[in-house]
Specification:
Layout: E1 13-18, H1 23-35, E2 42-46, H2 49-59, E3 68-70, H3 76-84, E4 86-91, H4 96-110, E5 113-115, H5 121-138, E6 141-143, H6 151-166, E7 172-183, H7 188-203, H8 206-212, E8 236-237, E9 248-251, H9 255-268, E10 278-286, H10 291-315, H11 318-324, H12 334-339, E11 341-350, E12 355-363, H13 366-384, E13 394-396, H14 398-402, H15 406-412, E14 416-422
Parallel strand pairs: 1-2, 1-4, 2-3, 4-5, 5-6, 6-13, 7-10
Antiparallel strand pairs: 7-11, 8-9, 9-10, 11-12, 12-14
Helix pairs in contact: 1-13, 3-4, 4-5, 7-10
Length: 429
């Protein structure tokens, strides 16, 4: 085991971007080069110094001067040495269930902060069980899901909580994230992560029950409230969320993951949102004649995938699956990335009857351009805004770690992030 020789303030680098030669890694490097202040000490890391240098040469400017660290997921010693040299490791190397645990362990042992893009429930569950207490001892912040999964989900609820607290409006109750608009494709890395999780579920059916638990990431399962069923299905009328919304809603692909992150934030904060906090995520399908059909088909298709996907990946020939699914490390053209965007609204009602809406909107393909901005700003926030971070350490969430600091950075990077009080309903549910 290689331990850091000094505290985080004495490290050689502020941020090391691990996996910078990959598709999203390169986009993240580009954003950090544009956003980081001149005094920030940035380095990149990966298996191939040659590929990393090619990326830095292409980005140009200040990135051309960044040091390169050779580190390999299959060489724990190299990961330990890398972690010991920096305040924060930002990683885009996935699937995380396959490559992530050795790096998390290295960061925990070194007392180094860590940020990733994972949307893998079982990987996060593994890190909580194996490293949470140790990370608290060493002062390490292991912050998962610092991209489209799950920064908009986590920060929208946190912003509402803050506003309700300032207004003395009571605790949060029924809360729903509504994907109002979205344009962009699914990344090969996301597909690979989902595939790996389903393969694990096929190997061990008991893991399927772990995934279904709405409090998969709980800080203390016995202390969680019993709120009955909290299904991830999202089929229904948008007006059930807020009277001003029109049309229909369907299940949101990332709801089974994002909802667990948000519930973990509530637990990490000592259930500050409230013990009656009930959270779900849906996506709008419009208000056309075909909208309810599309909503029902989407919800049914995702439900079937979650239920039968593990069996499919267990029985279908690997070569056929490889041919059908997009490969990790690939992505859309720059033109397509720039045309992408998303608008997410979160609605919440408090115990006093007050209602709030928080909006998170960003230009850029959600899984690529927008995610690179969120991850890059999260890494810089952990490294450079340490006096504004929460005192929490361990395996934590974006809002629990950076809820008071990250929104300022995101707004400066062009993200719309705002909260408002909306008209109350005539009856309190």
């Amino acid at each position: 085991m290689i331990m850091a020789t000094g505290g985080p303030s004495e490290r050689e680098f502020d941020v090391v971007l691990y996996g910078a030669s990959g598709f999203v890694g390169k986009l993240t490097a580009q954003h950090i080069a544009q956003s980081a202040p001149d005094y920030a000490r940035i380095a990149v890391a990966g298996r191939s110094a040659r590929k990393l240098q090619a990326v830095l040469d292409e980005i140009g400017g200040v990135a051309h001067t960044w040091p390169i660290i050779e580190a390999d997921a299959e060489d724990p010693g190299s990961l330990a040495e890398m972690a010991a040299r920096t305040r924060v490791v930002v990683t885009t190397v996935g699937p995380y269930a396959k490559y992530g645990l050795p790096l998390v362990e290295a960061c925990v042992n070194a007392g180094t902060d860590y940020a990733d893009l994972t949307g893998e429930q079982l990987f996060v569950r593994d890190t909580i069980e194996r490293f949470h207490e140790r990370a608290q001892e060493t002062g390490s912040r292991i912050v998962h899901s610092c991209g489209f999964d799950s920064v908009p989900s986590d920060l929208n609820v946190y912003q509402i909580f803050q506003q309700a607290l300032a207004d003395d409006a009571g605790e949060l109750g029924d809360t729903t994230l509504y994907v109002k608009a979205l344009r962009g494709g699914m990344s090969g890395g996301t597909v690979a992560s989902g595939r790996r999780q389903m393969e694990r579920e096929a190997e061990d059916p008991a893991l399927a029950q772990v995934v279904k638990d709405p409090y998969t990431f709980s800080t203390d399962r016995e202390l969680e409230p019993d709120l009955g069923s909290q299904p991830d299905s999202g089929f229904g009328k948008a007006s059930d969320i807020d009277p001003e919304l029109k049309g229909w809603t369907a299940t949101f692909l990332m709801a089974p993951y994002n909802t667990r992150i948000v519930r973990r934030t509530n637990g990490l904060l000592g259930w500050a949102y409230g013990k009656q906090f009930k959270y779900r995520e849906v996506m709008g399908t419009g208000s056309s004649v075909a909208a309810p059909i599309l909503a029902a088909a989407t919800s049914g298709g995702l439900g079937a995938m979650w239920k039968f996907g593990p069996t499919l990946f267990k029985r279908a020939p690997k070569k056929i699956i490889d041919r059908i699914l997009p490969a990790p490390g690939s992505g859309p053209s720059e033109e397509a990335r720039l045309k992408g965007f998303f608008v997410i609204e979160t609605y919440a009602q408090t115990s006093s009857g007050a209602r709030y809406k928080s909006t998170f909107a960003q230009q850029g393909d959600p899984g690529y351009a927008a995610t690179a901005v969120m991850l890059g700003e999260a890494g810089l926030c952990l490294a450079l805004d340490r006096d504004k971070l929460s005192a929490l350490t361990g395996v934590i969430t974006p809002a629990a770690a950076m809820g008071d600091a990250l929104p300022r950075r995101l707004r400066a990077a062009g993200v719309k992030l705002e909260t408002e009080r909306v008209a109350e309903r005539s009856t309190v549910s």
